[in-house]
Amino acid sequence: MGKIIIYEHANFQGYSREFTSDIANLKAVDWNDCISSVKVIGQPWVAYEHHNYTGQLMVFEEGEHGFVGQQMNDKITSLQMITEDLHSPQITLYEHAQYQGRSRVVKEATNLARGYDNDIVSSHKVQKGAWLLCEHSDGSGIRYIAREHEHLPYYSAINLNDKLSFLRPLLPGKCY
């Protein structure tokens, strides 16, 4: 399905380690808070700031990432591979909590900040794929990974209630 190769320094320098399955705490393998670049083959991976897949997150899709970015440099503590089928993604967004109010089906990257649905979404149901949900239209702020078959009735649970401005499906790797 895929793998991630992590590197101690930017531009794939220093020590490296390869993973083909999730790791909830990089301390267990002596790699906590020391990742500066990654290579991904196949399915995307999500890097988290804290153990057990919590805290700030960053998505790494297939390819070479010579620098993980200032936000996550030397701060990654857990890694999780996206295992969903990422072809033909679909998510339904709802204006209010508990899947109430106006709904909208989304199948591609969408900048809600440019339309009527900016900062009003309060719940969702994912029919297919995995989605990156972002507080701001540039992908910054609060970020959340919505996964296939997830039904999230209250965005207040993820601090994103009436704040969603951008979402996009994660891209499948060519090797998948």
Describe this protein with a few key phrases.
elongated; Gamma-B Crystallin, domain 1; 176 residues; four-stranded antiparallel beta sheet; single chain; 15 strands; mainly beta
Would you spell out the secondary-structure blueprint of this structure?
Blueprint: E1 2-9, E2 13-19, E3 37-42, E4 45-50, E5 54-60, E6 63-65, E7 78-81, E8 90-96, E9 100-106, E10 110-111, E11 123-128, E12 130-134, E13 143-147, E14 151-152, E15 166-169
Antiparallel strand pairs: 1-2, 1-3, 3-6, 4-5, 4-7, 8-9, 8-11, 10-15, 11-14, 12-13, 12-15
Overall description:
This is Beta/gamma crystallin 'Greek key' domain-containing protein. It comes from Aquila chrysaetos chrysaetos. One of its GO terms (molecular function) is structural constituent of eye lens. It is a single chain. A 4-stranded antiparallel beta sheet has the order 2-1-3-6, with no helix packed on it. Strands 9-8-11-14 form a 4-stranded antiparallel beta sheet, with no helix packed on it. It contains no helices and 15 strands. The mean pLDDT is 96. A hairpin with a 3-residue loop joins strand 4 and strand 5 (54-60). The chain starts with a strand and ends in a 7-residue tail after the last strand. The chain is mainly β and 176 residues long. The protein folds into 2 domains: 2-81, Gamma-B Crystallin, domain 1; 90-169, Sandwich (Gamma-B Crystallin, domain 1). The protein is elongated and about 50 Å long. Helices cover 0% and strands 45% of the residues.
